[in-house]
Amino acid sequence: MELKIPSLKNQFYIRLHKQLHNFVAMTENRIRQVFRERKEQGKTVTVAGPMVRYSKLPFRALVRHFDCDVVYSPMMLAREFCRNQTARLCDFTTNKDDFPLIVQLGGNNAEDMVKAVKMLQPYVDGVGINCGCPIKEQIREGVGAALMTAPDLVAEMVAAIRKECGAEIYVEVKMRIHKDLNDTVHFAKLVEAAGADSISVHGRLVPQRSRTAPNYDGIKIVKDSVDVPVIANGDAFTTTNIEEIVELTGCDGVMAARGILSNPAMFAGYTKTPWRAVELFWDYVTAYGLPYALTIHHFSEMLEAELTRYEKKDLNNCKNMVELINWFDDRFDLKRPGDEDFAIRDEYPWKNRTSFVYN
Ligand SMILES: Cc1cc2nc3c(=O)[nH]c(=O)nc-3n(C[C@H](O)[C@H](O)[C@H](O)COP(=O)(O)O)c2cc1C
Question: Where is the DUS-like FMN-binding domain (predicted)?
């Protein structure tokens, strides 16, 4: 076979490509970097947990703006993601500012997981395996919380991703606790040994709903059993809650889901959604795109503490994006990017509020 010598120009590009490749290989994974830096600073890693439908790009950008260190995508089913381009386009959009990002996958076998991770790898810092989703349809398929009783399979998934996708990708497992905490410790130790970078623990049993208080002792037992970072999850609604959770569990990070849904600025110390978050969210929604049903749901959650019952009903009567933006413009002094005062005010700039409350 004739050996073809690349032209000088091509040699230059090949060298450049190799240098870039080496640079990327040498660069620390951005999630590991966050954990290392926060540890050095004596700080807790703040994590925006996965929320099916809600943890989309505009919302991720918003929580990042308010001191969230690591952000999850919603769970995506690994098999659907690989098979179906429409599922990929609907489920996953990202951009260059969307980091550090963990995409959470649901799956019931290592092969699907590896395939999905290989497709995602160029765009994300890490992947997570969902072992906590209690939805019956998922459990029936052996996905989500079904994996809580299959620690060997989860360890196999972690090891396969590690082997096939390399050391650079961050691999995480999000689990719940078991009735018998010995099972929880066994589970955590197995996934750690398989090569997981960290473990997130939602401190509730699979059948327990959010009104049951999380078992922080159960989370602490995991933290005390493994060497990798552990992220505590359950009922973090304020920065005071976060301090208490760290105190009780000794964990390296705290993950919030419902807390940031109702107040995306929670990690920055706000106790309710500040007005600036509303303006920023409008900007991200219009710049990156978000379906109307999700947009109104987010605003409804974010404004929960500010609006009266009548005002909430009124907001939820909006039928489309145009009505929604008019609703805001009629009631508030809503600034756009480029306007003076855009995204700097915390108080709600109401216009003639009382006339709307009772109308
Ligand atoms: C709307 C919603 C969607 C969720 N979707 C997911 C998901 O896709 N994957 C997952 O592991 N957990 C999911 N969860 C669970 C949360 O990530 C979290 O574990 C749980 O809500 C407890 O945290 P919290 O008390 O801070 O809300 C979801 C929770 C909510 C409220």
Answer: 47-310
Alpha carbon of 252 to ligand 1 centroid (Å)? 19
Domain ranges of the chain: 30-268, 275-358
* Ligand 1 atom closest to residue 49's alpha carbon, by position in its atom list: 17
291 contacts: CB under 8 Å, gap ≥ 6:
none
Look at ligand 1, atom 19, and give the residue with the nearest C-alpha: 202
Question: Is 128 touching ligand 1 by the criterion CB < 6 Å?
Answer: no
Q: Of the candidates 269, 267, 233, which has an alpha carbon nearest to the alpha carbon of residue 251?
A: 233
Tell me which fold the domain 30-268 belongs to: TIM Barrel (3.20.20)
Residue nearest to atom 6 of ligand 1 (CA): 51
Using CA atoms, how far apart are residues 348 and 359, in angstroms rounded to an integer?
20
CA dihedral 181, 184, 190, 195 (to 10 degrees): -130
Backbone φ, ψ for residue 105 (5° rounding): -115, 145
From the annotation, which residues make up the binding site for FMN? Answer: 50-52, 104, 202, 257-258
Q: Is 236 helix (H, G, I), strand (E, B) or coil?
A: coil
pLDDT tens sequence across 229-267: 999 999 999 999 999 999 999 999 999 999 999 999 999
144 close to 135: Cβ distance less than 8 angstroms: yes
Residues 67 and 97: beta-carbon distance below 8 Å: no
Query: 295: CA distance to ligand 1 center in Å?
Result: 18
The CB of 147 under 6 Å from ligand 1? The reply is: no
| Ligand 1, pocket-test mutation among 258, 261, 300, most atoms within 8 A of CB | 258
Contact assessment for residue 269 and residue 239, using Cβ atoms and an 8 Å cutoff? yes
Active centre residues (catalytic): 133
pTM of the model: 0.92
Distance from Cα 50 to the centre of ligand 1, integer Å? 6
Residues 6+ apart with CB under 8 A from 15: none
Find tokens 């994300």 and name the residue. 124
| Structure confidence by residue, pLDDT tens digits, 160-196 | 999 999 999 999 999 999 999 999 999 999 999 999 9
